[in-house]
Specification:
Layout (H helix, E strand, L loop, with lengths): L6 E3 L5 E3 L3 E2 L5 H13 L4 E3 L7 H13 L9 E6 L9 H12 L4 E6 L17 E2 L2 E2 L7 H13 L3 E7 L3 H10 L6 E5 L7 H8 L4 E5 L26 H10 L3 H11 L3 E2 L6 H7 L9 H8 L35 H14 L11 E3 L5 E3 L3 E2 L5 H13 L4 E3 L7 H13 L9 E6 L9 H12 L4 E6 L17 E2 L2 E2 L7 H13 L3 E7 L3 H10 L7 E4 L7 H7 L6 E4 L26 H10 L3 H11 L3 E2 L6 H7 L9 H8 L26
Parallel strand pairs: 3-4, 4-5, 5-6, 6-9, 9-10, 10-11, 11-12, 15-16, 16-17, 17-18, 18-21, 21-22, 22-23, 23-24
Antiparallel strand pairs: 1-2, 7-8, 13-14, 19-20
Helix pairs in contact: 1-2, 2-3, 4-5, 7-8, 12-13, 13-14, 15-16, 18-19
Length: about 675
């Protein structure tokens, strides 16, 4: 991984560098040198804004590189922002047109609303922050919704690839999200070790929106800004003794430790500098990794201290900086506004109000998927009907099945009951099924899904996965889903994974599935798919639990916004006797682990609930399997508590690197996936 290759997949499927150059406060001549230095050092993200008054100089520097053939336009990710003097629906297109002209570009990669405030238009358009009577001369209210609709039009017109926001609190972001046809991909906000934005991050994660961190090292150059609150604080973070010790430990600078910390949280960073040596030094953060213990140490120095409060705007109704997560002090509140905001708080920030039916993750194609569902492996037809009914009544909205489970027909009957009775609509339920292992070849992909849809009594599924990177030979009986020959699974030696994926993509085009993904793939196999993909995989369903937490695979998948979908999340206590489970001699029972037992006592929960909550807090989709009604209900009761960061770390410590499933009958196959977890 390097500064030029480390990217994150946004919620619209486009990719963005995780590391870039910030250019706030950089004068025109300084910024030219800074951009040249950054590009030579491998930076591929340049962040600017109309308000910075340096777009023209940045455009000249970029133009030099394009004309000299050093870089192509598509190599560079350029972000600029809506002028604060133009933050009204009628002026959005004007702001963008002026920025494109200055930047010498026909499009930008990302266009942000710079702030949820609108300055009155001054006589001089270069007066980007007009002041009157010691305060920013701004309009009392901003029509966010109207502005956002105009931002969406810029995407339609090809003037920007993606759109987002900056300096918005969660309530303001929610106002945008509710009207959005094109979702915001990021929120650029102040974020550093003294102000870690964990609550905002938690809210945004549900929609796969990335935090883009300005002042990631605490803005040591902020002393001259009117927006900095207490200028004595701006140098403190780089001198923090905890950061200093870590810098010594890793033989890095304090700035490099702070940047690496945010990158490991999957936060986009744009450190600002005009000093060539510092620009190069800042980017040298890809040759080391902070340990989980040191990440926790840095989490412990959060002081909830903002460097920027823009207090000259504190008189405004839409002033965003009193609300970093859930508490917003409204200067002027009418009854309807208060009720609307209180409803927002109850829905999005009080954990006890979060439920099994509302907690979703936004996939890398912009669609949402429940984080909690019912697994149905090994569930017989009559058992599974009862299980599905119980799960739906308990609020489950994700049902996971597969052709190979031989229970799709029964699941389809249970769903059909609920749809016909008007208890649920089709769009309320997220159904995942999988390509049969006997059909894992390009010519048979459509046949497999057609048969599954017929059994499920559906016209489409929400997610269709390649069940394994292995292909069984087609048996005479299509219900013989795992044919055996000479004591071994009767499989083909190689699988045309790329060809199979191309056929999976056609199913999306035909509307037979909303999303596609993979299951039981290692990172190398996933990479083969990703390299040929026109439609990106949205998830990889794999074994994942506290004894086998898949952290390396998770790290690989994170930049592409692919969440792990965990089967066996509580250790698969019902796996005994399965031909896919490995020899159980010496494998401890996860549900009986003493560490998990102590935490269950501490939180007054079952061991299973502790294990499920742990994965949910890692933003991993869980599908615990059960056919026992009481257990199905109990498993879903994990939204009224939260594991502390310390207890999350304790659970990390019981990782044994132990798989429950290895399918050892296939170990000699070329595409056998379970020797390689990374």
């Amino acid at each position: 991984m390097s500064i030029s290759t480390m990217r994150v997949t946004l919620n619209n499927g486009k990719t963005m560098p995780l590391f870039g150059l910030g250019t706030w406060q950089s004068s025109s001549e300084e910024v030219k040198t800074a951009v040249r230095t950054a590009l030579d050092a491998g930076y591929r993200l340049i962040d600017t804004a109309y308000n910075y008054l340096n777009e023209e100089a940045i455009g000249e520097a970029l133009d030099e590189y394009f004309k000299a053939g050093k870089l192509k336009r598509e190599d560079i990710f350029v972000c600029t922002k809506l002028a604060t003097i133009y933050t009204r629906p009628g002026d959005v297109a004007l702001s963008m047109s002026q920025s494109l002209k200055k930047l010498k570009l026909t499009y930008v990669d990302l266009f942000l609303i710079h702030s949820p405030m609108a300055c009155r238009v001054p006589e001089d358009p270069n007066t980007v922050f007009p002041v009157k009577d010691g305060k920013l001369d701004a309009e009392e209210r901003v029509d966010f919704e109207g502005v956002w609709k105009e931002m969406e039009k810029l995407v339609d017109q090809g003037k920007t690839k993606s759109i987002g926001i900056s300096n918005f609190n969660a309530a303001q972001l929610e106002r945008v999200r509710k009207v959005a046809r094109v979702m915001p991909v990021t929120n650029q906000v102040e974020c550093h070790a003294y102000f870690q934005q964990t609550k905002l991050e938690e809210y945004m994660k549900k929609y796969n929106m990335q935090i883009m961190a300005y002042s990631p090292i605490g803005s040591p150059g902020g002393q001259t800004s009117r927006f900095v609150t207490d200028k004595s604080d701006t140098q403190v973070l780089l001198n923090d003794p905890v950061i200093g010790k870590l810098a010594t430990k890793y033989n890095k600078t304090p700035a490099q430790i702070l940047l690496r910390n945010l990158l490991q949280r999957n936060i986009i960073v744009i450190p600002k500098s005009v000093t060539p040596s510092r620009i190069q030094q800042n980017g040298n953060v890809f040759d080391f990794k902070l340990s989980p213990e040191d990440m926790t140490t840095i989490a412990g120095i959060d002081k909830a201290v903002r460097m920027f409060k823009a207090e000259i705007t504190a008189h405004l109704y839409d002033y965003p900086f009193n609300a970093d997560s859930a508490i917003c002090i409204f200067k002027k509140i009418d009854t309807s506004g208060f009720l609307e905001y209180w409803r927002f708080l109850n829905t999005y920030y009080i954990e006890s109000k979060m439920s099994i039916s509302t907690l979703c993750v936004t996939l890398n194609n912009g669609k949402t998927m429940p984080l909690f569902g019912l697994g149905t492996w090994q569930s017989k037809p009559e058992e599974v009907k009862t299980a599905v009914r119980t799960a739906l009544d308990a609020g489950y909205r994700l049902i996971d099945t597969a052709y190979s489970y031989l229970n799709e027909e029964a699941i389809g009957e249970a769903l059909d009951e609920y749809f016909k009775a008007g208890k649920l609509k089709r769009e309320d339920i997220f159904i995942c099924t999988k390509l049969a292992s006997i059909y894992t070849r390009p010519a048979d992909v459509d046949l497999s899904l057609t048969q599954s849809l017929k059994k499920l009594k559906l016209t489409y599924v929400d997610l269709f996965l390649i069940h394994t990177p292995m292909a069984c030979r087609v048996p005479e009986d299509p219900n013989n889903v795992f044919p055996i020959k000479d004591g071994k699974l009767d499989t083909e030696e190689r699988v045309d994974i790329e060809g199979v994926w191309k056929e999976m993509e056609k199913l999306v085009d035909q509307g037979k599935t909303k999303s596609i993904g993979i299951s039981n793939f290692n990172a190398a196999q996933l990479e083969r798919v990703r390299k040929v993909a026109r439609v990106m995989p949205v998830t990889n369903q794999v074994e994942c639990h506290a004894y086998f937490p898949q952290t390396k695979l998770e790290e690989y998948m994170k930049p592409y916004n692919m969440p792990i979908m965990a089967y066996g999340p509580i250790g698969s206590p019902g796996r005994e006797g399965s031909h896919v489970a490995m020899d159980e001699t010496g494998i401890p029972e996860l549900l009986n682990d003493p560490v998990i037992g102590k935490l269950a006592t501490k939180y007054n929960k079952t061991p299973a609930q502790i294990l499920l909550r742990n994965l949910l807090q890692r933003n991993i989709i869980v599908i615990p399997k059960s056919v026992t009604p009481s257990r199905i209900q109990q498993n879903g009761n994990v939204f009224d508590f939260e594991l502390s960061p310390e207890d999350m770390t304790v659970i990390t410590g019981i990782n044994k690197g132990v798989r429950m499933f290895r399918v050892e009958a296939l170990i000699n196959l070329y595409d056998y996936p379970f020797n390689d977890d990374v």
